[in-house]
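ARCHIVE CARD
SHELF: 3
SLOT: left
DATA:
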Amino acid sequence: MRLRPPAHRVSPRAIALWELEYLIAGLLLAGVAWGAAAWIEASQWPALPESVVDNIWWLPRLALSVAVFGVAAAPLWRYRVHRWEVSSDVVYTRTGWFHRHWLLVPVSRIQTVDAGQGWFERLLGLATLKVTTASHEGSSKVSGLRVEQAAGLAAELARRAHDLRDDAT
C-alpha cells in the first residue's frame, strides 16, 4: 500500500529560511576548519603524517564546498519533500532526505500544540508548529509555515483535541 503525499507544502519563504540556516552553519564549519588548519600548520604536529600537514588547507576548502552544497541544493530538496496536512482526525506529515518519513498523528492523542518562532523565522514571517503526544515517536513538527497559518492550526488542533479527548487517560 502506498501513502499519498500530504496535501500542502510549507511556505516558499521556508527556502530562504533554510538557506540562511545552512549558510550560518556552513560559515561556522568553515571557520572551525580554517582555525584547525592554521593551528595544525603552526604547531607541526608530530603525530600527523607530513603529507597531511603539508595539505591541511584542503580542510577549509572542503568545508566551504559542503556549505555551498548545503545553501544551494539542500533547501530546494527539502522544500520539495516536506509536506503537511490536517484532516478531521489526523495530522499528517512527510519529511526526510534519502529516507522518507510519513507520520500520522491522531488528533485524539494530541497532548500539546505549540506554534513558535526562532530569530530567522521571525525575520521571514514564518513559524514552526509542534504537535506533541505521549509517545516521543508520535510527535510531529512542521517548520516553515506562515505565522498566521501556524497560529490558526495550533488553535484549531487544540480545540479539536479537547473535543475528541476521551476520558481513558
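SLOT: right
DATA:
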Amino acid sequence: MNANQTMLEQLDLRDIQIPDMPSGWPPAPGWWLLAALGLAGLVLLGRHFWSQLRRIRRRRRIFAELNRLRTEHCGPTLIRGISTLLKRVALSRFQRLDVAALTGPEWLAFLDRTGGAGGFQSGAGRVLAEGPYAPSPNCDANALLALAQDWLRKNT
C-alpha cells in the first residue's frame, strides 16, 4: 500500500450524495401571501356581485310596482301610489332628514333637483302636490307615469 491509499482509508471519505428533492409543503411565505390576496380579491368580487344582484332585484320590484300603477286611471289612487313609491325610493337613496318631512312644493322641488328636470314643479308632476287630496284631479296619467319612470331610472 502506498501512502496516498492509506491516507484515503484513514479519512473515511464517501461518494457524493445528491440531496432529496424539496417538498411542496409547507409553501414559501410568498405563496401564503399570494393565496391571502387571492382570497381577499374573491371576497371583494363576491360582495360586489352580491350588491349588484340586490340592486337589480330591488330595481325590478320598483318598476313592477310602477307597472302595477299603470292600470289605474288618473285619480287620487294613481297619484297617491306614485307619490308613495317616489317617497320610498327617495328615503332609501337620500338622507332621511332631508326627505322625510317634505310635502307639497318642497317635495316637488326636491324631485326636480334629484332628476326631475323641472317636470314636477312645472310639468305633469305638479299634480303630486295637491292631487291626492282633490276629488277629481286634472292630470295626464301617461305623462305622470313617464316622469316617475324617468326619475326612478335616475335614482335606482
